[in-house]
Amino acid sequence: MSFDHLIEQFVSKNLDKKLVDELIREYKEVRKQDFLGNVEETIIHGGRFSELILAFIKNFVSTKVIDIDDIHFDELLNEIYNYPKKTAEDRILTLAIPRVAASVYTIRSKKDVVHVKKIDPDFFDSSYCVASCSWMLSQLVLLFYTLNSKEANDLINSLLEKKIPFVEEFEDGSARLLEQDMPLDDRILLVLYNFYPNRKTPYFIAKTIMSSPQYVKNQMISLEKALLTHTNSDGSKLTKRGIEKVEKEILCKLEGK
Question: Which of 56, 141, 151, 189 is the residue whose CA sits 20 to 30 A from 15?
Answer without folding.
Answer: 151
